Amino acid sequence: MAGLSFEYTADRLKFQFGDAVLAVEAGNRLPFVRVEADAVARVARFLRDELAFDFLMYITAVDYPAEDKITLVYHYYSYRDDLEFMVKADVPRRGGVTRSVAHLYAAADWLEREVYDLFGVTFDGHPDLTRLLTPEGFTGHPLLKDFTSADYVPFPDKMPAK
Amino acid sequence: MGLIARLPIYWEKLPGGGLLTTSAEKVLNWSRASSVWYMIFGLACCAIEMMATGASRYDLDRYGMMFRATPRQSDLMFISGTITLKMAPRIRRLWEQMAEPRYVIAMGSCAVSGGGFYYDAYSVLKGIDKVLPVDVYVPGCPPRPEALMHACLRLQEKIKGESLLQAFGDFKEERASAERLAGRWILEK
Predict the structure, then answer these.
(1) In chain B, what is the straight-line distance between the N-terminal and C-terminal CA atoms, in Å?
(2) pTM score > 0.80 for this model?
(3) What are A63's strand-pairing partners?
(4) Distance from CA of B34 to the nearest CA of A (A)
């Protein structure tokens, strides 16, 4: 009988990872656990193997320019316990790095590529960390709040005169 | 069409050849303008309006315009909607596959300039004329079928006003060889 409630899960994480679990917060829609950026993959493995969170629903990120940080957001779901569990981790705005969870959840492959593409966060250990949504040769990370509309033209040198 | 387009270069050198050229041009342009086949190809919400224009209520068939399911045999391309940066190279390739003379109608604000809603989006091209030459621009979001039909009529006017050499390229080498041939013909007489 594991992972029955959010509180139980959070307590197990705190017991297991100690100081790497920074805070347990109430949140707006869901309570969540904030962990160290380099503990993300360890926490994911623990959630999957020990607490039966067998489904990675989503990975996304939020840009906080004022606090100079990007918050990564992981939604895990347990089919056994019908429980959604949210984990957050902060990385610096420029050159943020965290561990990939793609070897644990196949769904993480494209989700991490999307976050890399749109926010510029690097996932260490990802099998193929390339841009997912924007075209090849695109520069910048569009969901950062200081990004301005791209002046990107697919073939600047091929515009013909008719 | 290649041979027909090259012929005037030769007969223009003959006495009275100019008259023949303008008459032939008139007939050919009339037939080209009356059978503009457009490529069946839609991009976004404007494509729905384009389909409505092509369907029986508005009926582009009246102008001799039929859709054709291959770029190789189309004369006209409607750019009907938002062009994303990833779609732009594909559209460019389709356009390159069309045989000349080929025409492009940019339909709606997005195709004209990037659009009212998407202009600042990171994924949207700011107007198809960044990658293709455009013949007629149709503003609107989306344009009414009447507006699109007006654009088609303007395109027909444009086609009817073209000279053959304008439509099919300038054929510099043929012109030079025609000069030489004409010179020899006059000398032989």
Answers:
(1) 31
(2) no
(3) A70
(4) 22
CB contact under 8 A, A147 and B122: yes
Sequence-ordered alpha helix ranges (H) in chain B: 2-11, 17-33, 45-54, 88-97, 108-113, 145-160, 164-168, 172-188
pLDDT tens-digit map of B65-124? 999 999 999 999 999 999 988 888 889 889 989 988 889 999 999 999 888 888 888 888
Residue matched to tokens 């969540």: A32
- Which residue in A has a C-alpha nearest to residue B88's C-alpha? A154
Range list of H helices, chain A: 6-17, 40-50, 108-119
Helix (H/G/I), strand (E/B), else coil: B106: strand
Nearest residue of chain A to residue B129 (CA atoms): A159
Q: Which residue of B has its CA nearest to A143?
A: B122
Q: Which of B85, B134, B158 to mutate to test the interface with A (most CBs of A within 10 A)?
A: B85
Proportion of chain B above pLDDT 70, given as a percent: 83
Measure the CA–CA gap between B9 and B181, rounded to whole angstroms: 11
Residue type, B74: S
Check if the interface score ipTM surpasses 0.90.
no
Å between A134 CA and nearest CA of chain B: 7
Tokens 């949210």: give the residue. A86
Angstrom distance (rounded) from CA A88 to CA A37:
9
Cβ neighbours of B177 (radius 10 Å): 13
CB contact under 8 A, A154 and B89: yes
Q: Say yes or no to pLDDT of B141 above 70.
A: yes
Q: What is the pLDDT of residues A50-78, one digit of tens each?
A: 888 999 999 999 999 999 999 999 999 99
B85 → closest Cβ in A135, A159, A162: A135
